[in-house]
């Protein structure tokens, strides 16, 4: 994408002719987008090498709920697209009359649920009872939410309801978006219950005002709690909160493999130690697409021996990661990775310009914020979005709905874009920088080639990160088939100009998050602390920083970098006042 000049509404097509660019246009706000979930080298040598290195739904009545963070969502938007499964010709929910409460069946009908999905049918037909422990293997987008909510809620309605003010059902899931999705589906399902049986659903997740949400929880009747591990672990530190979990009836782990892979295993284990022990009799339900070692270990805590194991995954089906063409690009240094990203977008857009929809994953939330501003400045002809854990909930929700609705555009994202979220028609996934694990890499690749569409995936690493491809030989990653190095110079110019437009505070936060993330991978990178700091300073230079941003003594100490050469130590007051966050890496201070 050689530098474009002139009207941003145009771009050069093949042969140099100008044409109107399909992505630079007025952006009508999708229906319901209002902060809710309605609807986030001159020597002639190659500069770098490549190497392997659905059906419409009738609206349910609006039901006010007290969800944490004050996000009030109408019940007709209870279910996000990937969980709104209408399985025409399947077993109708009406066949559960006598097994499910009539008001729950009416709630399902109002939401447009007429037929059970395969996972729902499995649960209702094969569980010995609706209060039995179960391990269920099912993919995202198959109707899992209703498959665990309905049995759990039915058990409460059959006389197993906790005392007022007590949590009866606890659902733990990996992301805010998924927590909101589950809570709204709960609201829709229970919307028709009479007043004396009303079920209040609360949520707990980061990025919201903890004090006000905690106040609502303690003064409400939180029959159902849907929470992410970090915030739940935090609030369970309060004895008054722990008291509200004394009468638990059901504990659900949703997207267990994704949640544990993201570094939440310690938090989940701590939560399970904070609530009543399994011997107190609560039902355990674990839903997971895969069963890695971490999931199996937690299963032994959540489920009793003799639990029911169910699966709707075809063992003969080719996994997404094996169906998606995957490529690697290895560059000598970080600045070249920025230029290579522009070159890659250029090549991919030229090859398939229609409905060009891309997700670019970064390593940290602060790094993603920088990349968003960089790409937005460098490629103004594209619609550019950002979605990461450092965004407040309103903008995050708006971005989610806007990118879902967009026919084209580039989303810069952190791993809040997990399996619990579905963005239609994404044709390309790019991973810029070192993934935390092979599992994380696979989860990201799974954002493309969905619903029968084609997709591609490219991982772009600098030289020191190339070990990732070599140490994951089972991943079908091949060298990128085109030479990107031939015309990098124009992209360097674009990068330099774009970096000059990015706020210095954004760069400082990205720099410090970079330090925190890569310090956790010193052994794999075969670097000591001096090497990590030198690498971070190279990153700062690539971002156009005149000198490396300052870090407070306190933060340097927390990061274990005291006395390391190359750091600029400040007094800390400015950094603290700016709200600079350190260490967004997996397993370092804050996993999300």
UniProtKB/TrEMBL annotation:
<keyword id="KW-0378">Hydrolase</keyword>
<dbReference type="GO" id="GO:0003724">
    <property type="term" value="F:RNA helicase activity"/>
</dbReference>
<comment type="function">
    <text>RNA helicase.</text>
</comment>
<feature type="domain" description="Helicase ATP-binding">
    <location>
        <begin position="125"/>
        <end position="309"/>
    </location>
</feature>
<dbReference type="InterPro" id="IPR014001">
    <property type="entry name" value="Helicase_ATP-bd"/>
</dbReference>
<keyword id="KW-0067">ATP-binding</keyword>
<comment type="similarity">
    <text>Belongs to the DEAD box helicase family.</text>
</comment>
<dbReference type="GO" id="GO:0003723">
    <property type="term" value="F:RNA binding"/>
</dbReference>
<feature type="compositionally biased region" description="Low complexity">
    <location>
        <begin position="1"/>
        <end position="10"/>
    </location>
</feature>
<feature type="domain" description="Helicase C-terminal">
    <location>
        <begin position="344"/>
        <end position="499"/>
    </location>
</feature>
<feature type="compositionally biased region" description="Low complexity">
    <location>
        <begin position="51"/>
        <end position="63"/>
    </location>
</feature>
<feature type="compositionally biased region" description="Basic residues">
    <location>
        <begin position="14"/>
        <end position="28"/>
    </location>
</feature>
<dbReference type="InterPro" id="IPR011545">
    <property type="entry name" value="DEAD/DEAH_box_helicase_dom"/>
</dbReference>
<keyword id="KW-0694">RNA-binding</keyword>
<feature type="region of interest" description="Disordered">
    <location>
        <begin position="1"/>
        <end position="71"/>
    </location>
</feature>
<dbReference type="Pfam" id="PF00271">
    <property type="entry name" value="Helicase_C"/>
</dbReference>
<dbReference type="InterPro" id="IPR027417">
    <property type="entry name" value="P-loop_NTPase"/>
</dbReference>
<keyword id="KW-0547">Nucleotide-binding</keyword>
<dbReference type="GO" id="GO:0016787">
    <property type="term" value="F:hydrolase activity"/>
</dbReference>
<dbReference type="GO" id="GO:0005524">
    <property type="term" value="F:ATP binding"/>
</dbReference>
<protein>
    <recommendedName>
        <fullName>ATP-dependent RNA helicase</fullName>
        <ecNumber>3.6.4.13</ecNumber>
    </recommendedName>
</protein>
<dbReference type="InterPro" id="IPR001650">
    <property type="entry name" value="Helicase_C-like"/>
</dbReference>
<keyword id="KW-0347">Helicase</keyword>
<feature type="compositionally biased region" description="Gly residues">
    <location>
        <begin position="35"/>
        <end position="44"/>
    </location>
</feature>
<dbReference type="Pfam" id="PF00270">
    <property type="entry name" value="DEAD"/>
</dbReference>
């Amino acid at each position: 994408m050689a530098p474009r000049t002139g009207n941003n509404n145009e771009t050069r097509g093949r042969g140099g002719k100008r044409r109107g660019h399909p992505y630079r246009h007025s952006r009508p706000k999708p229906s319901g987008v209002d902060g809710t979930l309605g609807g986030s080298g001159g020597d002639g040598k190659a500069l770098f090498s490549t190497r392997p290195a659905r059906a419409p739904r009738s609206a349910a009545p609006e039901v006010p709920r007290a969800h944490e963070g004050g996000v009030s969502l109408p019940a007709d938007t209870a279910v996000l697209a990937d969980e709104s499964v209408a399985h025409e010709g399947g077993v109708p929910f009406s066949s559960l009359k006598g097994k499910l409460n009539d008001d729950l069946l009416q709630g399902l009908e109002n939401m447009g649920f007429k037929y059970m999905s395969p996972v729902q049918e499995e649960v209702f037909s094969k569980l010995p009872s609706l209060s039995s422990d179960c391990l269920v293997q099912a993919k995202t987008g198959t109707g899992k939410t209703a498959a665990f909510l309905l049995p759990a809620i039915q058990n409460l309605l059959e006389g197993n309801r906790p005392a007022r003010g007590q949590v009866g059902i606890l659902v733990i899931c990996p992301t805010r978006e998924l927590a909101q999705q589950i809570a709204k589906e709960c609201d829709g399902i229970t919307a028709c219950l009479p007043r004396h049986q009303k079920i209040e659903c609360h949520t707990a997740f980061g990025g919201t005002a903890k004090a006000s949400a905690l106040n609502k929880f303690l003064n409400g009747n939180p029959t159902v709690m849907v929470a992410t591990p970090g915030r739940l672990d935090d609030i369970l530190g309060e004895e008054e909160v722990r008291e509200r979990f004394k009468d638990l009836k059901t504990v659900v782990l949703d997207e267990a493999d994704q949640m544990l892979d993201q570094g939440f295993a310690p938090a989940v284990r701590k939560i399970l130690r904070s609530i009543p022990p399994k011997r107190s009799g609560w039902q355990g339900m674990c839903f997971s697409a895969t069963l890695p070692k971490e999931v199996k270990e937690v299963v032994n805590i959540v489920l009793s021996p003799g639990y029911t194991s169910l699966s709707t995954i075809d063992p003969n089906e080719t996994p997404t990661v094996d169906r998606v063409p995957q490529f690697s690009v290895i560059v000598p240094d970080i600045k070249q990775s920025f230029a290579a990203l522009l070159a890659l977008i250029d090549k991919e857009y030229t090859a398939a310009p229609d409905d060009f929809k891309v997700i670019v994953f970064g390593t940290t939330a602060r790094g993603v914020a920088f990349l968003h501003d960089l790409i937005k400045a460098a490629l103004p002809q594209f619609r550019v979005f950002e979605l990461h854990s450092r965004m407040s909930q309103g903008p995050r929700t708006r971005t989610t709905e806007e990118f879902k609705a967009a026919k084209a555009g580039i989303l810069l994202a952190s791993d809040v874009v997990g399996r619990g979220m579905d963005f239609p028609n994404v044709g390309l996934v790019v991973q810029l920088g070192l993934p935390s694990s092979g599992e994380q890499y696979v989860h990201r690749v799974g954002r493309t080639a969905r619903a029968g569409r084609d997709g591609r995936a490219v991982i772009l690493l600098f030289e020191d990160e190339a070990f990732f491809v070599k140490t994951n030989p089972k991943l079908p990653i091949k060298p990128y088939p085109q030479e990107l190095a031939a015309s990098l110079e124009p992209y360097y110019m674009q990068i330099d100009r774009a970096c000059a437009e990015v706020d210095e505070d954004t760069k400082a936060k990205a720099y410090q998050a970079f330090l925190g993330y890569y310090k956790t991978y010193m052994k794999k990178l075969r670097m000591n602390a001096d090497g990590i700091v030198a690498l971070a300073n190279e990153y700062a230079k690539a971002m156009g920083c005149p000198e490396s941003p300052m870090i407070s003594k306190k933060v340097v100490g927390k990061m274990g970098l005291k006395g390391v050469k190359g750091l600029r130590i400040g007094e800390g007051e400015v950094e603290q006042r700016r709200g600079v966050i350190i260490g967004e890496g997996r397993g370092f201070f804050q996993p999300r």
